[in-house]
């Protein structure tokens, strides 16, 4: 079956990789046209504080230009292109959208259903990358890797970091709390087991696997996790329930001297409250890969604190993330063209 596919990628999710995977699995009888957006060299719009496109989040591109590019194509593979109700009204031929991310936050899902457009996604595309990054973040904070690096770059050999009252702690002697037990959280748990640490999980919607229960992982309420954990790592989605849930009240419950890791999404955290907890030393440190506003403004107060490690939302950035998402999207395209049910409908 021949068809026309529009691929809108960017400089991370390369459209050429998706085209190669689709051709390899579906054959070369498909008409493929590609558009590369300039992200991440240019920022996307996040929309968490309000969106000009019907509440869409994390998107890039001018709707008029993108609609013109998609044209009469019945199939679309995209990473960041915003697909609003207004755009769907201009694209009557569109019947299938593959979004190469864990959640289709750049698609108006109700509008897609109303127009009879099947939307699929690529869950777990960056689960391995984020899980590995999270372990690295924990080690950077608990073993003073960031502190030692920064001091040496400044010409200061900090022998005091060897003092018993200042040196770091090993993960094996600590309790680590995982907030969110989805594709990423479960992988972090699996990797943590090798360190021998105590592992707590909170997620009101998911039960622990039999293996994790047998291995001594505990499923606890959020309040208990905050009170017991030496390291707290966030892996929850942004919902009405979780937006800003790490607030002053939650931070007040955290064990003094604990460390917070956020490789999930910025809106989960009240960053003013976090600043106060870090500057007062109630929290020993934090590692943040996501922020309330991205890019983070250069005068942002958290950038000035000495007990924070910051990275520009790169936890999920790996070559494997791209190829994994491309393989998933290509299989969904094949299944759609063959009349088979999708693997990951939204």
UniProtKB/TrEMBL annotation:
Signal peptide range in chain numbering: none
SUPFAM superfamilies: Formate/glycerate dehydrogenase catalytic domain-like, NAD(P)-binding Rossmann-fold domains
Domain S-adenosyl-L-homocysteine hydrolase NAD binding: 160-310
Family: Belongs to the D-isomer specific 2-hydroxyacid dehydrogenase family.
A Pfam short name: 2-Hacid_dh
Organism for this UniProt entry: Bradyrhizobium aeschynomenes
UniProt keyword list: NAD, Oxidoreductase
Name recorded for this polypeptide: 2-hydroxyacid dehydrogenase
InterPro entries membership: Ado_hCys_hydrolase_NAD-bd, D-iso_2-hydroxyacid_DH_PdxB, D-isomer_2_OHA_DH_cat_dom, D-isomer_DH_CS1, D-isomer_DH_NAD-bd, NAD(P)-bd_dom_sf
């Amino acid at each position: 079956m021949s068809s026309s596919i529009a691929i809108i990628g960017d400089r991370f999710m390369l459209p050429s990789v998706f085209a190669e995977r689709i051709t390899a699995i579906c054959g070369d009888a498909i008409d493929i046209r590609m558009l590369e957006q300039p992200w991440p060299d240019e920022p996307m719009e996040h929309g968490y504080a309000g969106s000009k496109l019907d509440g869409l989040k994390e998107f890039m591109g001018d709707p008029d230009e993108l609609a013109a590019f998609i044209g009469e194509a019945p199939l679309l593979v995209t990473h960041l292109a915003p697909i609003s109700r207004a755009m769907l009204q201009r694209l009557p031929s569109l019947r299938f959208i593959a979004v190469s991310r864990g959640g289709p936050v750049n698609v108006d899902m109700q509008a897609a259903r109303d127009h009879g457009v099947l939307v699929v996604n690529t869950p777990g595309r960056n689960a391995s990358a984020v899980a590995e990054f999270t372990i690295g973040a924990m080690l950077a904070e608990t073993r003073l890797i960031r502190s030692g690096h920064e001091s040496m770059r400044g010409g200061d050999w900090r022998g005091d970091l060897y003092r018993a009252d200042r040196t770091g702690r090993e993960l094996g002697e600590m309790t680590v709390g995982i907030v969110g037990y989805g594709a990423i959280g479960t992988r972090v748990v699996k990797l943590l087991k090798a360190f021998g640490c105590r592992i707590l999980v909170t997620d009101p919607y998911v039960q622990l696997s039999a293996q994790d229960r047998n291995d001594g992982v505990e499923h606890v309420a959020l309040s208990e996790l905050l009170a017991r954990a030496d390291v707290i790592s966030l892996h929850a989605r942004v919902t009405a329930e979780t937006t800003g849930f790490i607030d002053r009240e939650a931070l007040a419950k955290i064990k003094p001297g604990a460390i917070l890791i956020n490789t999930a999404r910025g809106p989960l955290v009240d960053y003013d409250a976090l600043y106060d907890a870090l500057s007062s030393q109630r929290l020993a440190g934090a590692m943040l890969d996501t922020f309330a506003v991205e890019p983070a403004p250069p005068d942002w107060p958290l950038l000035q604190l000495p007990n924070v490690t910051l990275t520009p939302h790169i936890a999920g950035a790996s070559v494997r993330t791209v190829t994994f998402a491309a393989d998933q999207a290509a299989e969904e395209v094949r299944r759609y063209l063959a009349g088979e049910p999708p693997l990951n409908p939204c």
